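Re: beginner question about structure tokens

> Can someone show what the tokenized structure looks like for a real chain? I only ever see the sequence side.

Sure, here's an example I had lying around. Input first:
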Amino acid sequence: MVANLVEFPLSEGGSVVVASVGPGAGHDPYGPVLRGRVSEAVVTQASESFETVVQRVQPAATAVLDAARSGPHPPSEVTVEFGIEMSADLGAVIASTAVQANFKVTITWQRDTSR
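And the corresponding structure tokens:
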């Protein structure tokens, strides 16, 4: 798969460039057609800010946390980890393998030693 560089503007000015791999990473799933030196980097400009794009995945993380905390015996600690794929076309999407999204959830209960 072709790695594309996507430049996202930052709300406070400046920008951040991320490497995006695979179909949907840039405008062309097969990468740009380059003439001359193939080693030249091609950077696709994203239409939305980095902060706007990243905020789209927050509801998914919140839903996982809320579900873990809503049981009859809520845990002392919950950690949710997931990857974010950045795309000029789609913005931020939760990274996946095949057709499954990946969330790593760690839940910890501390014993109450005061009893």
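Each token stands for a local structural state, so reading them left to right follows the chain. The mean pLDDT is 74.
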